[in-house]
Amino acid sequence: MQRSDQTLRLFLACNGLGHVRRGYEAFFASLFPVLQGARRLEVTLFKGGGPRLLGQRVLWNLPWEGWLARHIGAWSSLGDPIPGRGYFVEQLSFFCRFLPSVVVGRPDIIYFSDKNLGDFLWRWRR
Question: Is 124:110 a contact under the CB 8 Å cutoff?
Fold first, then answer.
């Protein structure tokens, strides 16, 4: 889609949306339809699961509570389970799928809530 110079391209990124329904996920789910109707704003919601609806992209990732993410997280810490390692794996797998959309889509703003995803984006940008 061709956009005018006055239109901002906004990417909302929430890796847990579609897997769990906590505070961040509920926030992004309610924020997206409000922003989607805003003038001069082209908004796309990137989420970790659930149905693909207009303006939304589902990016495959390893859910943090899933067997594989937990075991990769435990393996990466040399067998010593660290709380949150599965969550880190989820965010890393989401980032790997999100990055091509960032490169091609060239958003003006990326809004996210997860620290690790922000760290990955910041390091890639540098």
Answer: no
